[in-house]
Amino acid sequence: MKHNLEHFEKAMAFIDASKSATSIDALSAAFQEVNTSLGFDHFACLSSVEFGAMPEGAVFLSGGASEWSDIYLEEHFGRTDRVLQISLRENMPVRWDKENPLVGLADASGEPSVLFGITVPIHMIGSFPGTVNVVGRTNEIAPEAEYAVQLMSVYLHDAALRLAKEEDKPMRPAIRLTPRERECLQWVAAGKTDWEIAAILSLSERTVHNHIEGAKSKLEATSRVQAVVKAFLRNLIY
Amino acid sequence: MIHAVSAHNQSEYRPYLRQLWQQRYDVFVEKMGWSLDCAEGTERDQFDRPDTVYLLSINDDGQLRGAMRLLPTTKPHLMSDLFSHLCAKGVPSGETVWEISRFYSLTGRHMMLERDRTVSELICGLYEYALETGIKQVTCVASMVLFPTILKAGWDVTPLGLPAVTDDEVVLAFLIDLNRRDYPLVARNRNVEGSVLLRRSLREEQWEIAS
Questions:
Q1: CATH 3.40.50.1110, domain A2-167, yes or no
Q2: Which residue of B has its CA nearest to A124?
Q3: How far is A145 from chain B (nearest CA, A)?
Q4: More confident position, A54 or B93
């Protein structure tokens, strides 16, 4: 019971902060602080909408290292698209634990990244379905921590909607790729190398490389895979 | 229109109260599958007492379309008798704290449907009733599935503990602060203009509280 109270107080610390938060950044920071103390590394709160055009009433915010959004975006992009499925079909949180981890695409060393955590679906009449996701490296998730996350998630999503309305600006700035950047990235998505793309587009290999690097930097992507995923989610490539 | 039914005017509402027990059976036992200890066809329990207050949503044709039950927290109520384990720091109680239960609407496909007029009237009627009679806060237990929509109404909601599993459902105990400041936002969110509470049903009761 003592354990229970401790988790409840952590959740309440965030809930109180969420009620008085005056900016998305302050809200994210408050959530991430409690999230870390519950044993998770990162979080993302998002509406299940096309990323290319965030419509009014949609939210996207995250906290923690970028590694998480890499994995999340890859997962979201992945064929299984489990997080999206959860946001549409489930009512209750889903745990990513030892039996069912959240697995990202293989990194440079060929090892897929494995993370554990919780996806909380948020259903509100009159709003886009959404999820709040928390992830970390530890696969031991106390049931109280899960309940605390579930409770905090509802307040996070609610406050994010309120602040998005108040701030009245798109949650993510629009990114424009040049036609060449888009073309090159499209071929990267098709699995082509720089040499192959250069041959297809009758460009030098170096020019192709520069276009892709340009797209990566605009998309704030650290890898080609991430650039493709991000571009896809924003409807920049198909 | 919302009719406030309490000890002083219960006799005028007998047919409606009979209908209330039947509708509650249909909604909570038949439709939601709650395991309530009640007779076939009518759902009525130990908390339906003479001092219980009901807010009834009755349409222009005189049909009961939805309702909620209000219990004083100074006497036995659901939170004190059945759900005290959901409150991490004790069950809130006091003269100005009441408890809501058996909230339903027959008109919406979904309990908390945003455009459901019955739900809007019940929410705003509760707010008006509270402001009129000096209720400052209400407590409630609800499913976590409904909680995001409850929060979205625009009022100040504070959890009383962590969610927990009860009867195969994850539920949460929470407290709503019915302050004057939030009322205009709640009414706007629900598209309600002006009063929805039948003043006639209030008068004598205010007298009781004042005396």
A1: no
A2: B149
A3: 9
A4: B93
